[in-house]
């Protein structure tokens, strides 16, 4: 039974986006696509334990979902109307662009007719397969609010006849920013998963985000932020083998075994960063974050890290993105150069804006620990543990807190 459950979980990770994208292409309705895909997985939960896992789970799920969709259309007795509604989504992608149903689905969900927050939420649901609670946590909003947001976005796509296709070459640059935001958030959810019942790292999400970013770079090879995001993902993914211990605990960067890092991914990421530096164009947010990660992955051990260069890059990033989260990350670099006391002063100034953000409390706890403020550090660790949604991260925070005793 456990093997079957594992197969179902793996199929959901690997096949959800493909099934939804295929149904959307055929029926032109996101509601039908999502509902039929969900029903096909529910049927798998019922039948696979008795019948066994099919030789090709993806094909079985697609066939089952297609039948479910047809049954729904027949029940509603609106086949002709549905087909007319679907017509705009069959617009063909120009021959010079990439044919990929999941990439088309992303651009559909990220259409500028939708509000920015709705684009991200809808894509994480339809392409990333994240649950509504997972997406709500990422946006720090109630589940009901997020559910309504996704429902309205799907209705808008249907009402506005938004086509299911990759935009023309002329429209791509204006559309790509929202897509990059979605891919970045999907990658982050995979890199440090927050959903209950999932592992601490969701490699399926990180791999799919990287795959789709590669496709977009093939469409826009000279777009600096596309290249920057791909480099950032590669350099981050390269560290994944060293990020979780055998005991299931998140391993901080300064404690990781760097021999486990993926050298080919690091080499590719560094090459992309150098490519953008050679372009001598003003870097965007993703390019700067990629450069920061390039500095980290250039050091053979933590003590060789060039913190002054990292701080300078964060200074540059703050000017582009003066968010409290960027300021928090900058404070971590500042602590390595000017000491934990200077960094703690900066971190404390962010408290009002980051009170519900667990990395804020974790960072503050580590700085207080370094300053031997044990009682305050313990309270900060407790708050970080309370807010953290990742089991591996909770284990690491608990260990550090317990060491204070």
Structural class: mainly alpha
Order of helices and strands: HHHHHHHHHHHHHHHHHHH
N-to-C CA distance: 42 Å
Q: Whole-number average pLDDT? A: 86
Rg for CA atoms: 23 Å
Shape: globular
Q: Report low-confidence residues grouped into runs of 5 or more.
A: 84-92
Q: State the helix count.
A: 19
How many individual β-strands?
Answer: 0
Proportion of residues in β-strands: under 5%
- Tell me the major beta sheet: none
Helix content: 55-70%
Note down, in words, how this protein is organized.
- This protein is mostly helical and 405 residues long.
- Among the domains are: 1-88, no CATH class; 91-221, no CATH class.
- It is built from 19 helices and no strands.
- The protein has helices spanning 2-27, 30-51, 57-76, 79-86, 101-109, 116-126, 132-139, 143-159, 172-191, 203-219, 224-237, 263-279, 285-298, 307-320, 324-338, 340-348, 358-370, 374-387, 391-403.
- The two termini are 42 Å apart.
- Residues 84-92 have low confidence and may be disordered.
- Residues 106-157 form the RNA polymerase sigma factor 70 region 4 type domain.
- Residues 71-85 have a biased composition (Basic and acidic residues).
- Residues 175-275 form the DUF6596 domain.
């Amino acid at each position: 039974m456990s093997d079957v459950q594992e197969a179902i979980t793996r199929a959901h990770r690997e096949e959800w986006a493909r099934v939804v994208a295929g149904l959307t292409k055929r029926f032109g309705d996101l509601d039908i696509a999502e509902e039929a895909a969900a029903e096909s997985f529910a049927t798998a939960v019922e039948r696979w334990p008795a019948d066994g896992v099919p030789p090709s789970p993806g094909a079985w799920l697609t066939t089952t979902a297609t039948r479910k969709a047809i049954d729904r259309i027949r029940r509603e007795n609106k086949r002709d109307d549905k087909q007319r509604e679907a017509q705009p989504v069959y617009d063909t992608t120009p021959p010079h662009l990439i044919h990929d149903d999941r990439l088309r689905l992303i651009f559909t969900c990220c259409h500028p007719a939708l509000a920015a927050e709705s684009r991200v939420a809808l894509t994480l649901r339809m392409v990333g397969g994240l649950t509504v609670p997972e997406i709500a946590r990422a946006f720090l909003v109630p589940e009901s609010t997020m559910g309504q947001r996704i429902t309205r976005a799907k209705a808008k796509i249907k009402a506005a006849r938004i086509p299911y296709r990759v935009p023309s070459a002329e429209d791509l640059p204006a559309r790509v920013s929202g897509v990059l935001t979605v891919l970045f958030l999907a990658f982050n959810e995979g890199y440090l998963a927050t959903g209950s019942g999932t592992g601490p790292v969701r490699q399926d999400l990180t791999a799919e985000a990287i795959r789709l970013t590669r496709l977009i770079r093939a469409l826009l090879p000279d777009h600096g932020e596309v290249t920057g995001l791909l480099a950032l993902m590669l350099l981050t993914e390269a560290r994944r083998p060293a990020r979780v211990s055998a005991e299931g605990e998140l391993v901080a960067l300064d404690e990781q075994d760097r021999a486990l890092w993926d050298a080919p991914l690091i080499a590719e990421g560094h090459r992309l960063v150098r490519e953008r530096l050679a372009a001598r164009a003003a870097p965007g947010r993703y390019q700067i974050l990629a450069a920061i990660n390039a500095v980290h992955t250039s050091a053979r051990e933590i003590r060789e890290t060039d913190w002054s260069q990292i701080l300078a890059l964060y200074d540059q990033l703050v000017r582009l993105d003066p968010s409290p989260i960027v300021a928090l990350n900058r404070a971590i670099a500042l602590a390595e150069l000017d000491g934990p006391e200077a960094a703690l002063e900066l971190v404390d100034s962010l408290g009002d804006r980051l009170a519900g953000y667990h990395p804020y409390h974790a960072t503050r706890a580590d700085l207080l620990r370094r300053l031997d403020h044990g009682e305050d550090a313990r309270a900060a660790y407790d708050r970080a543990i309370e807010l953290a949604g990742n089991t591996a991260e909770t284990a690491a925070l608990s260990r550090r807190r317990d060491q204070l005793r």
